[in-house]
């Protein structure tokens, strides 16, 4: 019965950033399939499609953990905070003390805020009508205003896109520069910086970004290729040929993307074995989101027989305001930032085992470091799976 009561959620009663209701005809990707099925399919495999509370174990358990540890804030308030970037079509964009009072007494069930977090409008996470309904990006706002707080929406039923001459019988279209000549602006709406509940900035991709000759989309949506934007046939009986990109948004969750993402070189130096990681990309790695990890594993051999291994983990560790280890979203401090900077390199020295005549070095990536995995009790094997970046061998 709960959803029936929730239908009453009016978009006029919202607080915070301006929310605009999405009409039934456009609200989920299923509505776009008739003409854009190839794009819908690609997007479904992306992690933008998994950004809702129900679909990403790491996200869900972080929210639950923050709500448990952060006194004075309810689960729904945290969900609404995180929704700014993870579910920006949410109809309520902030909560107040009055709401917290109701929530603490369990009397919030039928409030706009509680209904907004359960609405099926946001079930798909970052879907088509997130990116393609953005009208304006407010670049002059303070850099802490992100996601829904940084954009103005189109009227429901108008799609912003890269073409200035597109026509569709299903929706209106409008060309936008951030879909075409300057797409980094769109990505930076969310992939810029993020701040913990303690006000600590634990990720700062926008300021660490070193713009080269490529846009984010060149690497994460692939190059423009000939194809069709819509499969609908025109008056001549043919779909319109276009230059298009992939909507797979491949990234850290895609093992093949990690192959050769860093260049590894080995050298015998005075202090031992020197392993150098070179980052040819315009942003640090690991980077972006908090507790990612790069592992360097060094195996020593003598006449082909293994003698032992040494492992070094490159990851950021986070401390809460009492100095105890915590998750990025509750951090008061980052203990150490070990990521390899954009277009930069870092070297690490390993003491060589006595008698070894060969080393084999494997550099790999994990989505979540062991500390945070244990803290949150993450179960899905993807969080601990190692994606190989490069393997190298050196005779000593
Ligand atoms: C400023 C926009 C923004 C806000 C607000 C935000 N996030 Fe994120 N979050 C991102 C982006 C962008 C990524 C992907 C970055 C990456 O993978 O490096 C991400 C990724 C994550 C991930 C990793 C997911 C995975 O599958 O690996 C977790 C966990 C997460 N966020 C938790 C939260 C929580 C909890 C909150 C609220 C307390 C929150 N985020 C608020 C932008 C945001
Ligand atoms: C994270 C943002 C984002 C999401 C989510 C997204 N798109 Fe796009 N879309 C883009 C960008 C950026 C372009 C421009 C790509 C280019 O340079 O051609 C684009 C281009 C397009 C085009 C024009 C063809 C092309 O490749 O240029 C169509 C049609 C389209 N998107 C439909 C969809 C549909 C349908 C969905 C949902 C299944 C969707 N998009 C989800 C960002 C997004
Ligand atoms: C009945 C067919 C049909 C449906 C359904 C449909 N579209 Fe389209 N769409 C088109 C056509 C046709 C074009 C123009 C293609 C071209 O000119 O190459 C288009 C173009 C677009 C563009 C590019 C606009 C531009 O100016 O660059 C976007 C973005 C888009 N659609 C998004 C969506 C989304 C999101 C949905 C689902 C909510 C959707 N479409 C549903 C037919 C459709
Ligand atoms: C509305 C906010 C928002 C916008 C706009 C946005 N993203 Fe994201 N993106 C996210 C969030 C949140 C995640 C993490 C989702 C998760 O892991 O659950 C993410 C994840 C990703 C990932 C990581 C996938 C992985 O496997 O780790 C890539 C790559 C990515 N986005 C690229 C882009 C690009 C390129 C653009 C610009 C065209 C863009 N995003 C625009 C919020 C956004
Ligand atoms: C020259 C290619 C290139 C460009 C341009 C680029 N990236 Fe990446 N990015 C990579 C590679 C390679 C990786 C590592 C493998 C992976 O995660 O896909 C990566 C990783 C990421 C990750 C995951 C980081 C981590 O350590 O977990 C995010 C998020 C991301 N990129 C977002 C962006 C955004 C946003 C932009 C634009 C501001 C951008 N990228 C521009 C190549 C690029």
Offer a few descriptive terms.
single chain; 396 residues; alpha+beta; Immunoglobulin-like; 2 domains; four-stranded antiparallel beta sheet; three-stranded antiparallel beta sheet; 12 helices; 18 strands; 22% helix; 24% strand; globular; binds heme C
Fold blueprint:
Elements: H1 2-6, H2 33-44, H3 57-69, H4 75-86, H5 97-104, H6 112-118, H7 128-131, E1 134-137, E2 151-153, E3 158-161, E4 172-175, H8 184-188, E5 194-195, E6 201-203, H9 205-208, H10 216-220, E7 225-228, E8 241-244, H11 255-258, E9 263-269, E10 272-278, E11 293-302, E12 305-315, E13 317-319, E14 325-326, E15 333-336, E16 345-350, E17 358-366, H12 370-376, E18 387-395
Parallel strand pairs: 3-4
Antiparallel strand pairs: 1-2, 5-6, 7-8, 9-10, 10-16, 11-12, 11-17, 13-14, 13-15, 17-18
Helix pairs in contact: 3-4, 4-6
One heme C binds at residues 184, 187, 191, 209, 214, 216, 218-220, 251-252, 257-258, 261, 281-283, 285-289, 292.
Please give the oligomerization state of what you see.
single chain
Strand order within the widest sheet? 12-11-17-18
Tell me the number of helical segments per DSSP (H or I, 4 or more residues long).
12
Euclidean distance between termini CA atoms = 71 Å
The main β sheet shows up as: 4 strands, antiparallel
Estimate the global geometry from the Cα principal axes. globular
Global structural class: alpha+beta
> How many domains comprise the coordinates?
2
Q: Bound compounds, please?
A: heme C
Task: Describe the structure in your own words.
This protein is an alpha+beta fold. It folds into 2 domains: 2-244, no CATH class; 259-395, Immunoglobulins (Immunoglobulin-like, Sandwich), CATH 2.60.40. Helices cover 22% and strands 24% of the residues. It is built from 12 helices and 18 strands. The chain has helices at residues 2-6, 33-44, 57-69, 75-86, 97-104, 112-118, 128-131, 184-188, 205-208, 216-220, 255-258, 370-376, and strands at residues 134-137, 151-153, 158-161, 172-175, 194-195, 201-203, 225-228, 241-244, 263-269, 272-278, 293-302, 305-315, 317-319, 325-326, 333-336, 345-350, 358-366, 387-395. The chain has a 4-stranded antiparallel β-sheet. A 3-stranded antiparallel β-sheet has the order 9-10-16, with no helix packed on it. Helix 3 (57-69) crosses helix 4 and helix 4 crosses helix 6. Bound molecules: heme C (HEC) (5 copies). One heme C (HEC) binds at residues 47, 56, 58-59, 62-63, 66, 78, 81-82, 84-86, 146-147, 190-191, 194, 252, 288-289, 329, 367.
């Amino acid at each position: 019965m709960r959803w029936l009561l929730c239908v009453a959620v009016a978009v006029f009663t919202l607080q915070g950033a301006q929310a605009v209701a999405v009409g039934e005809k456009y609200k989920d990707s299923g509505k776009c399939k008739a003409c854009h099925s190839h794009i819908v399919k690609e997007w479904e495999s992306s992690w933008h499609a998994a950004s809702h509370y129900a679909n990403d174990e790491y996200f869900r358990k972080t929210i639950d953990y923050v709500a448990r540890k952060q006194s004075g804030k309810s689960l729904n308030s945290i969900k609404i905070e995180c929704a700014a970037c993870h579910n920006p079509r949410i109809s309520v964009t902030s909560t107040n003390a009055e709401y917290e009072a109701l929530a603490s007494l369990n009397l919030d069930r039928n409030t706009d805020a509680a209904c907004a977090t359960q609405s099926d409008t946001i079930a798909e996470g970052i879907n088509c009508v997130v990116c393609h309904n953005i009208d304006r990006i407010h670049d002059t706002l303070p850099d802490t205003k992100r996601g829904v707080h940084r954009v103005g929406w189109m009227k429901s039923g108008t799609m912003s896109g890269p073409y200035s001459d597109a026509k569709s019988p299903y929706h209106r279209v409008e060309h936008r520069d951030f879909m075409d000549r300057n797409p980094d602006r769109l990505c930076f709406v969310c992939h810029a910086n993020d701040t913990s509940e303690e006000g600590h900035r634990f990720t700062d991709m926008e300021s660490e970004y070193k713009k080269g000759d490529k846009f984010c989309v060149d690497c994460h949506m692939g190059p423009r290729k000939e194809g069709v934007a819509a499969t609908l046939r025109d008056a001549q009986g043919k779909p319109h040929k276009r230059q298009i990109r992939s909507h797979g948004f491949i990234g850290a969750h895609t093992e093949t993307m990690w192959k050769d993402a860093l260049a590894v070189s080995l050298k015998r130096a005075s202090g031992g074995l020197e392993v150098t990681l070179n980052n040819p990309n315009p942003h640090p790695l690991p980077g972006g989101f908090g507790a990612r990890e790069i592992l360097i594993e060094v195996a020593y051999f003598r006449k082909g027989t293994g003698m032992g291994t040494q492992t070094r983990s490159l990851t950021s560790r986070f401390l809460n305001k009492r100095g105890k280890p915590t998750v990025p979203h509750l951090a008061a401090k980052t203990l150490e930032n070990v990521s390899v900077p954009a277009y930069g390199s870092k070297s690490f020295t390993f003491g060589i085992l006595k008698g070894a005549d060969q080393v084999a070095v494997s550099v790999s990536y994990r989505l979540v470091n062991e500390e945070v995995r244990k803290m949150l009790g993450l179960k899905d094997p993807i969080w601990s799976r190692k994606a190989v970046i490069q393997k190298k061998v050196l005779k000593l």
